[in-house]
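Example record

The entry below shows one chain as it appears in the dataset: sequence first, then structure tokens.
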Amino acid sequence: MKEIYVRDILNKSQNGDLVYLQGWVKSKREHGKLAFLDLVDSTGTIQAIAESSSMDKAQFDSICATPTESGVTVTGKFQRRPGRDPEIRVEAFEVIGVATLHLNPAPRSNFDIFDPAMADHVLRHRHLYLRNPKIMAILRFRSKVMSIARRWFEENDFLEFDAPILTPAPLYDNSTAMDIKVHGQEVYLSQCAGFYLEAAAHAFERVYNMGPSFRGEESRSKRHLMEYWHIKAEMTFGNREDIIRLVEEILAYITQACLEECGPELEILGTKLCQDGLRGPFPRISYEEAVGYLKTRGFDATFGVGISTAEEEELSKLYDTPFWIVGIPRSVEPFPYVIDPDDIRVTMVADLIASHGYGELLGVAEKIYDPLMLNERLTEKGKLNDPRYEFVREVHEAGCVPHIAFGMGLERLIRWLLDIPHVRDTIPFPRVVRRNINP
């Protein structure tokens, strides 16, 4: 098992130490009797210099003939000289896995991974371009964000609850879900863990889930994927103000922690972290006010219809921070959310729109606990007598209490924080509408 990494050699070795490294050849240059290898592993890069005079001819020729991306082991003396990067003077070299497949550009080379002209090529070879330093930095950042979010939930007494992926009951219309057959039964890939978190909240009071969600509708934008990861939470005995405040707290926590812990990733990407999450409480605009404003800007906005991506971008020009759209119409929202007692046209829901035109980040809601209101909303959506939702109704008939929830797309959050052009670049293997699932 590998025990010594590039990071260890750079941080712990002294001049003249004999070091042993397992890694890959990132790039190679030859100058007469000298060969320069950039060796890389998961922790960094170090240069190795081979001299023909210090080894037998066969081994030096082997170094010169080794293709980039090959897996190798190198033994040599560590050298650190003033004004120069640390290096290894090669004494022994062995090829462990020769690279016979070659890509252009090379996976670990410095090219613009966000260039739209490169998108198809990179996606088709995603399994190899995972080695690219910038893609690695994004995925390391993703891992850290997930760890930070879990830390916040644990510090605030939330239980992580594993909701199922297979469900008989889609949140939205059947046509928006991905259906599969399991032993002859038609079921769906989860669109939302909410039905199960709702049940769990009545046992544990504060629960969260971080897992995949699936959407089957044809949404082609820079912030939509067919498969994405949801950060979901649910808690009992709260209202919309409580969940808005909680979300503003967790966004500030994640942003501050990323500032403190993600410096190496930001440096590799050459970007600055968006710090707007620290600027709460965020301003609010009602859905009705938003529709009225959009009409004055020439948009064909209609009450009762969802606000489009272009309309969200227009609204974001009103603010230099994220902002809430509150009071989403019941015609737009699915059935689980409370009807506003002051305006029965809308629900007790709010969507948080990211700054700088990045669109919707997340939604929060008061969820229905009154069985009569649930039946009213199920009737509206044509689901009242649908046996697939019987387990949802039973939760509401067994001492259901006021409860609140939020759901945030992990990839949308990462895209916004890192200023990434497209959400597909924030997930290891993106599943994009009208693109074959490969690899």
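Notes for this example: The CA atoms of residues 361 and 412 lie 6 Å apart. The mean pLDDT is 96.
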